Amino acid sequence: MRVLVIEDHPDLAANLGDYLSAQGHSVDFAGDGPSGLNLASSDAHDVIVLDRLLPGMDGATLCRKLRERGKLTPVLMLTALDTVPNRVEGLAAGADDYLVKPFSLSELAARLNALHRRASGWSGGSGVLQVADLTLDPETAEAHRADTRLELTRAERRLLEVLLRRSPRLVSRAELERTLWGDNVPDGDVLRAHMHNLRNAVDKPFATKLIHTVHGEGYRLVASAP
Amino acid sequence: MRVLVIEDHPDLAANLGDYLSAQGHSVDFAGDGPSGLNLASSDAHDVIVLDRLLPGMDGATLCRKLRERGKLTPVLMLTALDTVPNRVEGLAAGADDYLVKPFSLSELAARLNALHRRASGWSGGSGVLQVADLTLDPETAEAHRADTRLELTRAERRLLEVLLRRSPRLVSRAELERTLWGDNVPDGDVLRAHMHNLRNAVDKPFATKLIHTVHGEGYRLVASAP
DNA sequence: TTCACGCTTGACGCTGCCTTGACGGGGGCT
DNA sequence: AGCCCCCGTCAAGGCAGCGTCAAGCGTGAA
User: Fold this and answer.
1) Fewer CB within 10 A of the end CB, N or C, for chain B?
2) Chain B: closest CA distance from residue A85 (Å)
3) Strand order of the sheet with strand B148-150?
4) What is the structure's pLDDT at B124?
């Protein structure tokens, strides 16, 4: 998930960035209102974390301008004070959710995921799939990780596509098998071999592993360290 | 939308009623705890506005009793004081959201709409489960408590999911066993071992215990021992 | 036809989970 | 108080699930 963080406190921004990228999201930053609005208008992000107090332009104003430009990227607003006028104005400005400081990082991440899920439900996905530094373009069938091209077979590509589309959710073995062979799944446990090959291509040459197995359940594609 | 307002201040109740009915909702009233619980148990409302301070029965107690009866109607709790224990207890009692007085009627209406939408859309199916600072996302199979990730096995995860879904209600051993093994439950008392492991992961490292056992009956997952 | 690539099959060994059984403590009923 | 049943705790064994690898087979392209 591509997250844009608009926040002027460097330490808080760094905290957010660390946590979110550890969860496998790619994070962009803006330190003031105008540059935040520019980046937000680029349609390059799945969700936006927006501080209420910003140099150059107020967070609510930024959100309002963004909506006026027709951008529908979900916005999670951070407010320092939990006062009634504060909340109302934030939501009225077009924010989709808000969070009062201090907040827990896990709650923030959960809310971002919820926003993203809700939004991607009715707007469809953009072309290229991405988790952490791993990308796959279903159109060109090209996969990259950290600027190096991955050589994938057809089965491996299909597996990777499903895992990316469902990320960070868990995908059962049965579901993976259905996407490969439809209704007539071959005997034995062929999936294991393909997962092994996919791992050799995607995870083996790199430091952080993205493909994780959940014993007895299936597989999931995330960047978090087990 | 059918709204039930449980509130003992006549003027505030009248205000709420006027505003909500002006928005096209039908509104019922209760002025004290016991009658409120009765009306709330009738399953005739889409959402409930519940004051924290009530004659006859505390709002949190009412909410807890309502959940114990298996009623899942979304509850928006009104609290006079915005303290952390206050919030936690309200949410632990089974409330879905809370609002601190004084609040604006427009925000109340917006939150009621959000609760209703969420309830009718997801209908208890998916979404992240939460009790106190413990969360579990059935989709990603990830569990957290207070920003730390919990390593759970399949059996532990299933147990936790049932306990969270039924929280704060009691869950019998038989029911827990059925969710783990279906109809053919193994001999002996394997459940004890799994509950022990689950506790080691969920409660052992933390100060407050969430899993409570009811002697001879089963288990329940709540923040405070009733 | 020949070649090459990818898919399938099967075997082997390991990790981790589930199960089993035993012991001790505590709560409830008489 | 005393008994009994229920429950917490722990360790060890067994087994299912999984990673790994190598070799055979099918299929498409030159």
Assistant:
1) C
2) 8
3) B129-131, B134-137, B142-145, B148-150
4) 33
